[in-house]
Design a protein that fits this description.
The complex is a heterodimer of chains A (359) and B (136).
Chain A (H helix, E strand, L loop, with lengths): L1 H5 L9 H4 L8 H16 L3 H12 L3 H10 L7 E7 L5 H14 L4 E7 L8 E3 L14 E7 L11 H10 L4 E5 L9 H5 L2 E6 L6 H5 L9 E4 L7 H17 L14 E4 L8 H17 L5 H30 L4 H13 L5 H11 L1
Chain B lengths: L6 E5 L8 H12 L3 E4 L6 H11 L3 E6 L4 H14 L6 E6 L6 H6 L4 E3 L5 H11 L7
Parallel strand pairs in B: 1-2, 1-3, 3-4, 4-5
Classes of the chains: A alpha/beta (359), B alpha/beta (136).
């Protein structure tokens, strides 16, 4: 599969413009060569190169960037499934069970598992692999942990880019497991085609289910640990509360329309409900692929693709902007501006306007 | 570009069920600013090699208390070499008799940490010896 999608002799866009700037300008060509080499090898199925490339992307190096320029046009076919939920709700175990289910059908699967970085030391414990051990030696399963490195919202800055790399490397199904989330870390919904919110039983009453935030972005809500007492009741409560709001489907007009998530009961440990969950994910993916752009599902798919594009672009723009403001001569102006804001001599809005005007 | 954290895999090969030390080390290295991939108990050499490959770690730290180090550790280093991970720094810790250390070092273990080693010593050793391939 990966070999067919790799498409040899691909003429990538020229990364020269960006590479001409910055301190490494003289090494631009070499960096670009390394990026191209990693991209070609990763797309051709070399796992070592794929892994190396993910590091470059994660570290946001120029080699990673030039590889992404080549690979991005080859990505876009995979079903990107976001899995989110509170710490301890069983996301990793559930993802592992889903990987196993997909492998029964011989489907290659990749996982990006995000864990938080320490805001104090920058260190991190990446522990999601503990629950995903059974696939060693299976080259069609690729699991990669990422630390958030200061990024808020449940993901790392380069998660969308890493997913694009895995997509281009020929993984048709990619799970993105967020950090354990609270009520409003909904960023994953912007980069995933389908968002699964995992709940454990006994995690709150019906009012929790109608609060704005995490549950709102769910395409599928999974009540995990279905082997525990109270799981059935939790699922039916969620079904009840999540469907009431969406019943008055009239009069939304151009306003954003609330989603109407399916609620499933599963037990990642016993495997109960896991085949049904994967089937539900596949149905959604197929429906999106088959949907005409004008139909309801087609519109929703287009909206989520645009949201993903916007999230990626916004991330890159703000990073570029930050780099520009730290660049050479500007860094002094930037520091002076920061000091002025800190001393309340200048308000942050005027400061931002001034800096933007100076670029 | 901000300096990126060193990425370390902490794994327990073999069958002993004592992972307190590995967890304390993982936690300590986190506080030293490392990104630590923790894989838990009862890892086969193949699992460790797979994890090291997919995570692209700079360091593999093996904790072993079972006495099977002369069998398991060379299997890990051999597997890492076969997977093209020659540049990964491999260290070991746990209950390993001094007499065994030279053979382990011959097999590609760069340092064996015995009981009583502090987290600071391990962190300093890693920082001083890690081989970073700065491609970008």
């Amino acid at each position: 599969m990966s070999a067919e999608r790799a498409g040899r002799g691909h003429d990538g866009p020229d990364g020269k413009e960006h590479l001409d700037q910055g301190p490494e300008a003289g090494e631009g060509g070499r960096t670009q060569d390394r990026g191209r080499e990693l991209a070609e090898k990763a797309a051709a199925g070399d796992r070592r190169s794929l892994s190396r490339l993910l590091t470059e992307v994660e570290n946001r190096t120029r080699a990673g960037e030039s590889a992404l320029r080549l690979l991005y046009p080859r990505a876009g076919a995979a079903h990107l499934v976001g899995v989110t939920g509170a710490p301890g709700s069983g996301k990793s175990t559930l993802v592992s069970a889903l990987v196993g289910e997909a492998r029964k059908a011989g489907r290659p699967v990749a996982v990006l598992a995000i864990d938080p970085s320490s805001p104090i030391t920058g260190g991190a414990i990446l522990g999601d692999r503990v629950r995903m051990q059974s696939y060693a030696g299976d080259r069609d399963v690729f699991i990669r942990s990422m630390a958030t490195r200061g990024h808020l919202g449940g993901l790392a800055t380069s998660t969308a880019a890493a997913a694009a790399v895995l997509d281009a490397a020929g993984f048709p199904l990619i799970f993105v497991e967020t950090v354990g989330t609270g009520q409003s870390e909904v960023e994953v919904a912007a980069i995933a085609d389908t968002t699964v919110v995992v709940q454990a039983p006994e995690m709150g009453d019906e009012v929790q289910a109608i609060k704005a935030g995490l549950l709102e972005v769910a395409d599928l809500v999974v009540v995990n640990k279905g082997d525990r007492p109270g799981a059935d009741r939790a699922a039916s409560q969620l079904r009840g509360m999540l469907s009431v709001g969406a019943q008055h489907d009239r009069a939304f007009g151009d306003r954003p329309r609330p989603k109407r998530p399916e609620v499933l009961l599963a037990s990642a440990v016993t495997g109960k409900g896991v085949p049904e969950l994967l089937a539900a994910l596949d149905r959604r993916h197929l429906a999106r692929l088959r949907a005409s752009p004008e139909g309801g599902a087609g519109e929703a798919a287009e909206r989520s693709r645009l949201a993903r594009a916007e999230a990626q672009l916004a991330g890159i723009l703000s990073e570029r902007l930050r780099d520009l403001l730290r660049d050479g001569e500007r860094v002094e102006t930037t520091r002076a501006t920061l000091r002025a804001i800190a001393a309340h001599e200048l308000d942050p809005y005027s400061a931002a306007d001034r800096l933007l005007a100076s670029l | 570009m901000p300096e990126r954290p060193v990425k370390v895999l902490i794994a327990k090969p073999g069958l002993d069920g004592h992972d307190r030390g590995a967890k304390v080390l993982a936690r300590g290295l986190r506080d030293e600013g490392f990104e630590v991939v923790y894989t838990g108990l009862r890892q086969t050499p193949e699992m460790i090699v797979t994890a090291a490959l997919q995570e692209d770690v700079d360091v593999v730290g093996l904790s072993i208390l079972s006495g099977a180090h002369m069998t398991l550790l060379p299997k890990v280093t051999h597997g890492l070499r076969e997977a093209g991970l020659d540049d990964v720094l491999v260290t070991a810790g746990g209950i390993i008799p001094d007499d065994d250390i030279p053979a382990l070092m011959d097999a590609g273990i760069s340092r064996v940490f015995g009981p009583g080693t502090t987290i600071g010593e391990v962190a300093d050793y890693i920082r001083a010896n890690v081989r970073r391939d700065d491609g970008g």
